[in-house]
Design brief:
The protein is an alpha/beta fold and 151 residues long. Helices cover 30% and strands 17% of the residues. α1 (27-39) crosses α4 and α3 (91-97) packs across α4 (99-108). The chain is globular.
């Protein structure tokens, strides 16, 4: 018997495109599920040092939900690289202006912080509404089981 070892040549050809509807889904649960798809951990041939994941299209990001008091208490911070340049934006303001950015930061925060994680992050496409320009890739609808159904 020989051990199967994936080659990098045919990985891009075997990638699937999945559509995930974020309407009514919790941001954190949705982000962890999508991060595992992007990294390829759902693939039976997963290899830790290769990008084995599929491409994911997230639609209806505007309809995702933050549970509890996170909508008011969570702050997104960045620095302008000037003295005193720390800027803060609340989750409520971020959701109002750029809802896709909230999901993107949550998902990319769950990916590895190296070249492999950047390659995985490039396979993520997020749109605030139901329409997307990726019809040519023939994406398949991906359903998540909600946590309330599992218990």
């Amino acid at each position: 018997m020989s051990t199967y070892f994936p080659s990098g040549k045919d990985l891009a050809r075997k990638r699937k495109w999945l559509v995930v509807d974020a309407a009514g889904q919790t941001v954190g649960h949705l982000a962890s599920e999508i991060a595992s798809i992007l990294s390829g951990k759902r693939n039976p041939r997963w290899t830790p040092f290769m990008d084995m994941g599929d491409s994911v299209i997230v639609i209806n990001a505007r309809l995702a939900v933050l549970k509890g008091a996170k909508i008011d208490q969570k702050m997104y911070r960045h620095h302008t690289l000037y003295p005193g340049g720390l800027r803060e934006v609340s989750a409520r303001n971020m959701f109002a202006k750029r809802p896709e950015r909230v999901l993107e930061l949550a998902i990319k925060g769950m990916l590895p912080k190296n070249k492999l994680g950047k390659a995985m992050g490039k396979k993520l496409k997020i749109y605030p509404d139901a329409d997307h320009p990726h019809r040519a890739q023939r994406p398949q609808l991906h359903e998540f089981t909600s946590r309330s159904n599992q218990q």
